[in-house]
Amino acid sequence: MRDIERLFNEYSESHMNPTNKMIHNLAVPAIYFSVIGLVWSIPVPGFIEQYGVNFAHIIAIPVLYYYFLLSGPIGAAMTLLTIACFLIIEQIAQSTVPVWQVSVGVFVIMWILQFIGHAIEGKRPSFFTDLRFLLIGPAWVWGSWLKRLNISY
């Protein structure tokens, strides 16, 4: 069994309840977005900033590399999600509300929802046993969409 399949199977064990799945389909990508927004908000030194790069761009490279190591289609899907997050964050950055404030709000609300989902499920979140599941969650959401579209990963 491929590593991606094993990780998805293990992650799925604590995500069987339909309500918990629905919550995770909303909350997990939103948390991914909020983490990118928080990392985006960390001030960068001028020698990096001059190139229009921030820490979110830098961190995205190894994260996306990990996803591509697991699966090409998952890597491509996560690249699309990451680009969408960057585009939304750029729009927020042009508004009067700081990106970090939006990101903290989304992060807190979505984690509360996730813990409600796990209370309904009756199982602890997967990342309590393996921190990799913090990265697997967003890929798992995409994996379910890819299955619906008959795209193998």
From TrEMBL:
GO annotation, cellular component aspect: membrane
Pfam families registered for this protein in UniProt: Mpo1-like
UniProt key word Cytoplasm: no
Keywords: Membrane, Transmembrane, Transmembrane helix
Gene Ontology BP annotations: sphingoid catabolic process
Signal sequence residues: none
Transmembrane segments: 26-44, 64-87, 99-120, 126-146
Protein's name according to its UniProt entry: DUF962 domain-containing protein
The organism of origin for this protein: Alteromonas alba
Biological classification of the source: Bacteria, Pseudomonadati, Pseudomonadota, Gammaproteobacteria, Alteromonadales
